[in-house]
Amino acid sequence: MEALALDTLKPRAEMLDLYNDYAHDIIDRRTFLDRLSKYAVGGVTLAMLTQMLTPNYATALQLGEDDSRIEGQRITYVSPKGAGTMGGYLVRPAGVTGRLPAVVVVKEATHSIYVFEINKKS
User: Fold this and answer.
1) Which residue has the higher pLDDT, 88 or 60?
2) pTM for the predicted model, two decimal places
3) What phi-psi label fits residue 63: left (phi over 0), alpha (psi between -120 and 50 degrees) or beta?
4) Residues 47-82, buried b or exposed e (16+ Cβ, 10 A)?
5) How many CB atoms neighbour CB 29 within 10 A?
6) In the chain, what are the domain boundaries?
7) Does 106 score more than 70 pLDDT?
């Protein structure tokens, strides 16, 4: 029998919903793993499922904050019809002035390293 490769696994919507609940502190780790375990069948282990769903933070940072090609800064702005004062990470190409296209990345809770990385690549 051939071993399953992690890159051949595809998460189901229910698994992604479980991870979302865990990541946003709606359920604790024990509950997350307990509920996820029902998908660990047919040679797929709970460890494989967990690895498939969780981000690999070690590979997230690809452009350093001191990269000379970009200018990044944490900003705050007023959102009167939203949450009041919002925070964000603004990144622009270095040395460019005038109007630029933009990408807005919205994250409900804290800013993770992935949010910063998305902004820097855009």
Assistant:
1) 88
2) 0.49
3) beta
4) ebbbebbeeeeeeeeeeeeeeeebebeeeeeeeeee
5) 9
6) 6-54, 70-121
7) no
